[in-house]
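Human: If only I could read backbone structure tokens as easily as an amino acid sequence. Take your time, and here it is.
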Amino acid sequence: MARFFLRLPGVRSLHDRQLLFPVVVVVVVVAVLVQGALDRAARDLTPNASVVAVEPSPLAQTSRPALRGNLEKTPLTYFADYWAQLATEVGAHLIAVGPSRVGSVAIGPGIAVTTLVAADALDAEVARIRLALDATEAEDSTQEAVRSVSAVRAVDRGLGLAIVEIEAAVEPFATASTTQVTSGSYVGAVSLSASGLSSIAPGYLVSVETPDATTPDGDLYISVPPPIAGVAAVVDLDGALLGITYHAADGPRALSVAGLRRAIDRMERVEPCRAIVVSELSNDVLSVLSIDAGVVIADVVVDAFVPEPSLRPGDVLLEWAGEQVTSVDRFVELYDAAGVSAVVPYRVIRGRRRVSGGTVLPDTECRANSSAAVRLVGIGMALRWQDRGINVEGWLVTIVASGGRADVAGILEGDVLVAVDGRPVSRIDQQSELDRLDESAEPVLLTLHRDSGIRLVAVTVPEL
């Protein structure tokens, strides 16, 4: 057959000039283009099918109109126009949250998934707004300003993810089952820039780890890297959500829709963790110790405390936060009432000696808090204890309210307070002394550590 075609005059001439193969390629390409144009014209003449609206639920698998019929998919435009149009179509399901405008993925009515970094920035922004407006006693303005900021609903510090509340008008993604997507299928990671522009990184699916008792997170393996900041939505060619990808503390991470569902369920129903576990004492033990009431510390989650607690398993706890501990239930009540980051005083019997001390409570996930915190509304700043690290040990200024007394005095966020009127404040248990700064009717002289040097700042009393 090949010899027959080569005998044809035109074919023979092209073959001799080594032009036969290029001409064949051009003919094939033209044929594909014509076919694509005909298909598109046929679609334009076909009436659109009606789409039934379905009430969305968080990460629920819903029916959806296919995007493929509205998008260019000829071979010459597939990797350019198609992906660009897909990014535009699904970009409406992403939203920038927080002061850094971090890209987040809408997963349900009024909620989105974002990174832990973005969630912490949101919490800091809310704290800054509250402090600035509380200093001016503008309660109505405070509530209105706080409502304008996305609220953190739940976090999973192990995964490095958080669920935040967003405007209900942002439409969530429809989801697809990863079990119906074969390995090697094309996927795209759609992310949002701080300016609000959506972009897409094309790739393909490698494999999916099905969530089970041993692998609860349902990892998604794709050829697409996560965005530099925020969370990207991993979508199929119809724009349906297959999972998410982002940077976690341990490196790039991707979760399938099923794994994300499990993570959200865990975040929503997490039980508070108490880093100190106690148990009852028998009457004989109480009699030998010559005490009426108390509990024994059965376990201490040492890694949850910063600095390391002086409490030890085997200590008999007599008082907690200034109150007598009469039972396990009473201790749980006092522990929960103290609150995260509070400096809690205690009294224990160790051996036969009575010992007093104080400790900073960790968060409800038994994760270490960096410090105790002090909020000085009258001066207009917030402080947090920090151990010796990049700067010095002391009370770190974390928030300075704009226009407040601290701001007027020239105090900056990042300064470390080391002394008040010449008296060192170098211990974590001096929180009550700092609280009295707000009550001072006289100017105070603060010693600050800034940029490897010492500065003196006078905080004056406002004129009436």
